Amino acid sequence: MLLAPAPLHIPDGFLNLVVSLIFWAATVIMVGLATSKTNQTLGEKQVPLMGIMAAFIFAAQMLNFPVAGGTSGHFLGGALAAIVLGPWAGILVMTAVVAVQALLFQDGGLLVMGANIFNMGIITAVIGFGLYRTVIGRNKNIRLIVAGMSAWLATMAAALLTSLQLWLSSTSRLALVVPAMLGVHALIGIGEALITVAALAFIQETRPDLLDKEATASSGGRGWIVAGILVSLLAVLISPLASGNPDGLERVADDLGFLETGSSKPFEILPDYTFPVLGDTAISTIIAGVVGTFILVGLLILIGRNLRKNRKQ
Amino acid sequence: MHINAFDRFHFHDSFIHRLDPRIKVVVTVAFILSNAILPDGSWLAFATAWLGLLVVNDLSNLGLGYSFKRSYIILPFILVAITAIFSPLGNPLAEWDLGFVTLIPTDFGLVRFFSVLTRSWLSVQMAILLVATTQFPDLIHAFEHLRLPRVLTTIIAFLYRYLFVLTNEALRLLRAREARSAGLPGQKRGGKLIWRTKVTGSMAGQLFLRSYERSDRIYNAMLARGYTGHLRTLNPHKMTRADWLVLILSLFVILFIQFVGWVR
Amino acid sequence: MPVKHQPVYEITIPECDGDVLQIQDLHFAYPDGHVALQGVSLNLCEGEKVALVGPNGAGKSTLMLHLNGILREDGDIFIGGMSIDEQNLPIIRAMVGLVFQNPDDQLFSPTVFDDVAFGPLHMGLPEDEVHIRVEEALAAVQMNGFGERLSHHLSMGQKKRIAIATVLAMRPQILVLDEPSAGLDPRTRRALINFLDELPITMLISTHDIRMVKELFPRMIIMDEGIIVADGSTVELLNDAALLQDHGLEIP
């Protein structure tokens, strides 16, 4: 079963037009940014490097390893790519991987490719690199532990986002798809984390210069830390809500008109748009969570900036 | 070992094979887009689209059932859509009490489920036909001329070229692991999970380093032939009148499918 | 594969006063401190076919990387009388056709055509000329009509030939090959030897294949530990058993 489709590669038809286009737009923006960033910061040498690395991720996805009970862990590689190559190059590499999987093997669709790239390439890079970035320069064990955690979380976030997209397209019921996807990927994520850590440890031992070089080459990213933490927190916040109290989320989507757009009215993007009722407990929890996270991260940035200023003076 | 099984291109000669790859890409995307737009339960339109697929199958000399036989690839994903059957938006058809949860299939849910399935099934067949009738390098050229960022198409070209080389390398590593994974009767085979993943991780690391060093050598080979950071390629494709005709005709067919789907 | 070939490839070699390549006292150390070359000097004349032999790590590949400026360090290298500097680099890279050992590194494009066209395109040649060059180079390696083939579908022997075609398309004045006969089965190796024999172009070829050297190359250079330890007639050097033994070479 070399080419068994991973459960994260959404085929065409499973997402509706609106969701597909929204994620295509987000992906185009991020990939466009990545293109211009890599053009600016990376030398001409990086083009063959990124190409070979994309082939590497592809080949490494074949290195499944036996987990208990006859299942085998598959490797996504998004977090590893972002950690080793830097986030922008990682995004481009994963974009190419997802595109070739869709084009060559129909593993994932074309119209939904934006969503697939976003889930498996962008979210994984943001979380994978963002969290890892916080411990660059720390000792080896801490870095490896954080890398493993970020790889696991990246897998979970990708699974969560996939479930949400399926639900927003009214292809799946939230109450069923979220626990199922998260349950499966909690296991797959462990494999992902272990392989990421072991691969990093191997590289660390044999060619530590590579890790240091790549890390410093893209070390500008304080924004990545923020984004990484933010997205991770969002994932952690939404997961229990989505699986524990799905009716709340479902009602938001219903109020926003998503579920109906999904099924029959693709031309009316967000019709009869109404603000969700704040009185509902589930909704206010989410909003409070999101707002709280924003405030927290904002405070952290402010404090960080002040500290840096003080040090300079 | 050769993994040419990766190549989904079929060496046939046909009218469809000779079409400009850009046309094929545009028509494929338009077809998939059209499926996504069609309303749930527009079975007549779905059937028309399927007829269109049959025509393309036939024109490609691949045999009528070619794309159908390979469309099983979406099967694992059906599991995800099954939950749509229990959509709360429609009229309940039954009530299944499983103890911990009560499932209520609805008419709306059933229509939704089969519509999702049909859309996916039609779309994947067109994508299968696209790669079966177009050499992958031609697809890359098509994307280049459809204004995808050059960096991205170049990465994809490298990915395609070295996919085979590196996968062979990965297989050699796997075989080396296999060859040394002996088991003694009465002993538990394979060691602890942590140890096994460590072995796999080391293989991934090994593969990474080999790839990294290879990229150095490739870069040198590029430099030796005058690479200065800007990649140049030729456009081997010229749009003919037949290409334009096929494009226009196909788009009309797709419009017709939409018409069938929306006018009742 | 035919055993005897007609030379198809014609090149115009401009006037060069005996020296296509001139290296004077070349030194090189890698960034990690490893000293690879410590004072290499050699001359190559037009039409000469020279073998470069020596154990692994002798500095052969490092020397080759210097010949078209991928590595640059102190010491003077002149190609056709031109020194290698930033300004001359594009011309030098067209003049020295460097073919790497592993054709999977040399052939980095999806199709044969794209790969053979890479050099001419980066020389800035117009489209028509690029097509002519590709045809010509593929004909020179007896691979006419392989342009549309995918690189990963080729056999090892075919890949080696296409790899040579990728530089022939740039009409180089010196062909520099790194271990061309390594990893070939006897028949493919024989075909390659015949082909190299008939290619009317100056050649510097690094190899461990002493039997091929004996057959094909009148002149032989032995390198060891970053220096040239012998440079002269192949027949004479191969008779010097002590010399060969000292540098880990086997008498054929």
Could you walk me through the main structural features you see in this protein, from its secondary elements to its overall organization?
The complex is a heterotrimer of chains A (313), B (264) and C (252). Chain A is mainly α. Chain A is 74% helix and 1% strand. Chain A has a two-stranded antiparallel sheet. In chain A, helix 3 crosses helix 5 (113-133) and helix 9 (222-244) crosses helix 10. The longest helix of chain A has 33 residues, at 174-206. Chain A is globular, with a radius of gyration of 20 Å. In chain B, a hairpin with a 4-residue loop joins strand 1 and strand 2. Chain B has a domain at 9-135 and 239-262. Chain B has helices spanning 15-18, 21-37, 43-59, 66-69, 75-82, 107-133, 136-145, 150-180, 193-224, 241-262, and strands at residues 96-97, 102-103. With 252 residues, chain C is an alpha/beta fold. Chain C has a domain at 21-101 and 168-246: Rossmann fold. Chain C has 10 helices and 10 strands. In chain C, strand 9 (219-224) and strand 10 (227-233) form a beta hairpin. Chain C is globular. Classes of the chains: A mainly alpha (313), B mainly alpha (264), C alpha/beta (252). The interface between A and B is large, with 87 and 91 residues.
